[in-house]
Amino acid sequence: MKIIQYASLVLLSILVLASCQQKKEKKEVESKALEPISNEILESAVIYEANIRQYSPEGTFEAFTKDIPQLKELGVKVIWLMPIYPISMKNRKATADLSIEDIEDPKEKEKYLGSYYAISDYTAVNPEFGTSEDFDKLVDTAHENGMYVILDWVANHTGWDHEWIEKHPDYYHKDKEGNVTDPINPDTGESWGWTDVAHLNYESDSLWTAMKDEMLYWVKEKNIDGFRCDVAGNVTTDFWNYVVPELKKEKPVFMLAESEDKDLFYEAFDMGYNWEGHHIINEIAQGKMSVKNWDDYMAKIDTTYQNDDYLMNFITNHDENSWNGTVEERLGEASETMLAFTYALPGMPLIYSGQEYGMNHRLKFFEKDTIPKTKGETWKTLEKLGALKNNRKAMHGAKNAASYKRLSTSNDEHILAFQREKDEDTLLFIANFSNKKQEFKLSVSGNFVNYESSNNLNLNPDEIHNFEAWEYKILLSK
């Protein structure tokens, strides 16, 4: 009997060990399953800007990590984390105009958390968000769900508490009296008003090495997949051309510049901000610009950018939401049309935290706030658009983007129509960019499918179309 019991225990131990080994091997396979980031992946990507502080009532890595699997429903392939580093206390912003030193009440001071972009330590995490291990879990969870993580990187300035100010004052710009300055607008020679940060000076060769090492830490030790670089055009392009190859020696990385400066894309950056296009979208929605302005813009960028340059398209982001107004405030009844427009265009569409829930609230920038979490029509729209972006070659938008061809209509003053095509996959975007019903003919013939209704549509150049105010259609080849 004892022999049988012993044999049973041995067999049980073997089975447990085998099960543990299988789980370990399965986990290793899963962790290795994510391909290195590449242009092929980015062609069909949606990018999500995560504001950890405001994403949840807790404002933590852990709370955001729980929701990462949901982002797959929206077609998200890249998660951009707003700065996750400790924030300087000295000169901390309380409002756009006031510093925390201007607030006398100690309890009142506590609620001002400062700007994410006033960094006191580039290689630590803000303890308000959680621990370094919590951050690791966020990255691992994103990778397990087929998503890449890029960090917001602020190379133009540090917070006033950063140790470099004492240890390496040569890293900073100084005034005539030798005092470190806040950032200066290169166009005007005057302060931007960012008084909570100190301006770094890239005439210091030592700074280049120091900044490279700080960036490499996150790539080597934390396995992140690239950077969104704040005010990238205010940092010398030579630095970016130096540091990006150093990062790529470790692994492929995706580089997003908060800039439209053409020279940044020659060597260093993959994608930039479509700021000008965004502002035209706002102006069209407000009746201050027209379809012609958009056509002129597309003609301009076609001749000024290289063929493999591409831009991030958006109707909101952290700056727009907090400082210039919500989507509804700026775009009104044109909101859904312009959202679909940013997906249909060449480039990569952005979702900002809360946008997926139809957020009509300006998030506080220097204090704790939170986004809504009720899924509604905007979520459903983003699901459909995300599926299109992920699965249709005619939506490809990176270095090997689908073509963009403007289609003529009998009402080009108010109707914008264009065709995108790649590898025999075709997409038509047709929209009434006005607040009145419009009638028009479209110079296209053929059979298409309406992406929203899945209804078949046979287009005829002689057919008269009637679109309601801000009505749009996305039509797909069969």
Automatic annotation (TrEMBL):
Q: Which organism is it from?
A: Psychroflexus gondwanensis ACAM 44
The biological processes this protein is annotated with in GO are: carbohydrate metabolic process
Task: Tell me the leader sequence span.
Answer: 1-18
Domain Glycosyl hydrolase family 13 catalytic spans what residues?
A: 58-389
Q: Provide this UniProt record's keywords sorted from A to Z.
A: Signal
InterPro entries with a match to the protein in the record? GH, GH13_cat_dom, Glyco_hydro_b
Q: Under which name does UniProt file this protein?
A: Alpha-amylase
Q: Which residue ranges does UniProt annotate as crossing the membrane? A: none
